[in-house]
């Protein structure tokens, strides 16, 4: 057990998976000697060699397309998309091939592929280095999509993803990488994909969220604790499959719910969560389901005040929760 | 298959032609729906090239995949049943025409996003190399043969695939079936380099071959496969001509009936038949007998498809994840 940041926890998971199974290899842009732009793969090239830690061409379609083929023929590739914003040249490969392979082949072929993608903003990455991409992929049956936000969960869920016979999009919030620290067991352990986590127990209002917003929600909850408002924070961790039971149980408990996500509001992943609550939790609700999310503008802007305007922040979250509690 | 049996190849080509003619008939009768792309006129490419593969080799192809499936030895009955959307089909009715596949034959299927499957094929080849070099599986000596059309060579994934295959010296044969049209767009309109093999020449050796001559096709494919097995990627551009429309519903505004008739002299089946007759390996009577036998087989194939049950509705919800979510 050691205190690690999110990035170090992911590195440890990669190392353990590669040590356990020679079929596991890493492919991505600058993942080799450089150890990745965020240094997530630091040390692995030296330890496992260039055949297992592969510096790919700057062509995401190659990274994903070749990994799908290799996964179909028995490998366990871990493909890194350097920034989630760069995933779109590989969009077709993920949607048309990886997600459908089992379905189109009567279970003959599967694609045990993990796609790691650093996403999210608040780091002045601007137009091509800050976006959230989950809604595009959670829409597609055949894929699993996870977004752990603590070092403990990140290691556990990455190991679970690597063991998983289905393609998993593993989203790593960039701002969490060095900011979020926590105790991580040294050994190999997993958290099942598809289970939410109650990040904070509460009784007055529920926040359903994931990613960096989990931490902002907890911060907002601490602010409101002094005002005698007791906030429950549910960290979904896994977006597909979704733990509907934990969501509805929280709604039953608090009767008021805020769905919080960093992506653009319109058509975002939280819209589906809100629809599920409206349909399955209606009789437990004492207020309309609220959403707080990123602005509906083409991309996260660069300048600090504009970026803060885009993002839900702890104070915006607290304001929204105050209004909701007083409804 | 080292020594080519031209008579057997002739029979397979006639089988493919007949399969396609029956598909057209059944499409006209609305028993086959959706989009149907026939391989009529290109039979020598699949039969010649796939005959150069060994059992441990791999085949990945494009959406016009009926001929490749049959040339690889897939049974026609489940293929026709798939076209009929029946539970006995290769994809249990989920896939249809463009997505035949059979793991037992290392036939990784037809793919309908033009050019995308080149990267999948490259990944399978990468896996072969990885198994040999990292996992120490010395018996991994398979070659991947990847088919695509001339229309697939303008998109970025084509260049991505040939570049990386060359970089890693992967055991793969890229086989372009140049039938002179990207759907309805002629070669000269869709590409600046009409000698397609030259597009790959900075990356790997390659050549243009007569894809309507099954003997030449086999000989050059054997050379290509041997090169891929021992040295690295190889590129074949097989010149051929699609005698039917892009799909069964194509009005073919881009060429005239006279254009097509002028190309019938290059029909690979007619060419091979004449060659066999000239070499005293076949008589007109024997050829008619082959036609009759194939026709009878195809009647049984269609009957099998017709009599097969539709998939149960629950089939829609199967095989999405390894375990239901």
UniProtKB/TrEMBL annotation, chain B:
SUPFAM superfamilies: Thiamin diphosphate-binding fold (THDP-binding). Keywords: Membrane, Oxidoreductase, Pyruvate, Thiamine pyrophosphate, Transmembrane, Transmembrane helix. The keyword Heme does not apply. CDD domains: TPP_E1_PDC_ADC_BCADC. It catalyses: N(6)-[(R)-lipoyl]-L-lysyl-[protein] + pyruvate + H(+) = N(6)-[(R)-S(8)-acetyldihydrolipoyl]-L-lysyl-[protein] + CO2. The chain crosses the membrane at residues 108-128. Its EC number is 1.2.4.1. Residues 12-312 form the Dehydrogenase E1 component domain. Signal peptide: none annotated. It comes from the Bacteria. Gene3D superfamilies: 3.40.50.970. GO terms for molecular function: pyruvate dehydrogenase (acetyl-transferring) activity. GO terms for biological process: pyruvate decarboxylation to acetyl-CoA. InterPro entries: DH_E1 (IPR001017), PDH_E1_Alpha_Subunit (IPR050642), Pyrv_DH_E1_asu_subgrp-y (IPR017597), THDP-binding (IPR029061). Pfam families: E1_dh (PF00676). Its cofactor is thiamine diphosphate. NCBIfam families: PDH_E1_alph_y. The pyruvate dehydrogenase complex catalyzes the overall conversion of pyruvate to acetyl-CoA and CO(2). Heterodimer of an alpha and a beta chain. This is Pyruvate dehydrogenase E1 component subunit alpha. The gene is pdhA.
């Amino acid at each position: 057990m050691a205190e690690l940041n999110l990035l170090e926890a992911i590195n440890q998971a990669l190392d353990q998976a590669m040590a356990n199974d020679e079929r596991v290899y890493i492919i991505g842009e600058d993942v080799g000697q450089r150890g990745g732009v965020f240094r997530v793969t630091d040390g692995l090239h030296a330890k496992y060699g260039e055949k297992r830690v592969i510096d790919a061409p700057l062509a995401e379609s190659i990274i994903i397309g070749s990994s799908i083929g290799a996964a179909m023929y028995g490998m366990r590739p871990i493909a890194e998309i350097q920034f989630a914003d760069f995933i779109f040249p590989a969009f077709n490969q993920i949607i048309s091939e990886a997600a459908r392979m089992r379905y189109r082949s009567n279970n003959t072929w599967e694609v045990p592929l993990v796609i790691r993608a650093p996403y999210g903003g608040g780091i002045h990455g601007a137009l091509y280095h800050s976006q959230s991409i989950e809604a595009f992929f959670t829409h597609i049956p055949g894929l699993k999509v996870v977004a752990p936000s603590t070092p403990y969960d990140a290691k556990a869920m990455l190991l679970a993803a690597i063991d998983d016979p289905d393609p998993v999009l593993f989203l790593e919030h960039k701002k969490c990488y060095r900011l979020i620290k926590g105790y991580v067991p040294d050994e190999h352990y997993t958290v099942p994909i598809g289970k939410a986590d109650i990040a904070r127990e509460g009784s007055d209002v529920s926040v359903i969220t994931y990613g960096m917003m989990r931490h902002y929600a907890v911060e907002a909850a601490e602010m409101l604790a002094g005002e005698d408002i007791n906030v429950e924070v549910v960290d979904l961790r896994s977006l597909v499959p979704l733990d509907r039971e934990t969501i509805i149980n929280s709604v039953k408990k608090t009767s008021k719910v805020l769905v919080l996500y960093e992506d653009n509001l319109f058509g975002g992943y939280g819209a589906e969560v809100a629809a599920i609550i409206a349909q399955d939790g209606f009789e437990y609700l004492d207020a309309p389901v609220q959403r707080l999310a990123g602005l509906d503008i083409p991309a996260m802007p660069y300048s600090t005040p504009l970026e803060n305007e885009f993002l839900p922040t702890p104070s915006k979250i607290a304001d929204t929760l105050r209004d909701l509690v007083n409804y | 298959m080292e020594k080519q049996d031209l008579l057997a190849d002739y029979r397979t080509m006639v089988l493919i032609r007949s399969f396609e003619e029956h598909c057209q008939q059944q499409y006209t009768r609305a028993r086959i729906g959706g989009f149907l792309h026939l391989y009529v006129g290109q039979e020598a490419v699949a039969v010649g090239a796939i005959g150069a593969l060994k059992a441990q080799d791999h085949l990945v192809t494009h959406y016009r995949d009926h001929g490749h499936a049959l040339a690889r030895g897939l049974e026609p009955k489940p293929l026709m049943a798939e076209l009929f959307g029946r539970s006995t089909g290769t994809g249990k009715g989920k896939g249809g025409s463009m997505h035949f596949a059979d793991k037992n034959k290392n036939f990784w299927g037809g793919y309908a996003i033009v050019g995308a499957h080149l990267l999948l094929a490259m990944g399978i080849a990468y896996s072969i190399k990885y198994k040999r070099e990292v996992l120490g599986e010395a018996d991994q000596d398979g070659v991947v043969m990847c088919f695509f059309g001339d229309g697939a060579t303008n998109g970025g994934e084509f260049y991505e695939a040939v570049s990386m295959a060359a970089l890693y010296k992967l055991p793969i044969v890229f086989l372009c079936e140049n039938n002179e049209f990207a759907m309805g767009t002629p070669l000269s309109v869709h590409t600046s380099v009409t000698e397609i093999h030259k597009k790959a020449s900075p990356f790997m050796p390659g050549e243009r071959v007569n894809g309507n001559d099954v003997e030449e096709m086999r000989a050059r494919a054997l050379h290509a496969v041997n090169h891929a097995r021992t040295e690295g990627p190889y590129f074949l551009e097989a010149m051929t001509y699609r005698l039917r429309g892009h799909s069964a519903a194509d009005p073919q505004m881009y060429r005239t009936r006279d254009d097509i008739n002028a190309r019938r002299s290059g029909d690979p089946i007619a060419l091979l038949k004449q060659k066999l007759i000239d070499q005293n390996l076949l008589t007109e009577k024997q050829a008619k007998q082959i036609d009759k036998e194939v026709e009878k087989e195809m009647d049984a194939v269609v009957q099998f498809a017709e009599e097969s049950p539709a998939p149960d509705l629950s089939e829609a919800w199967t095989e999405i994840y390894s375990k239901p979510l």
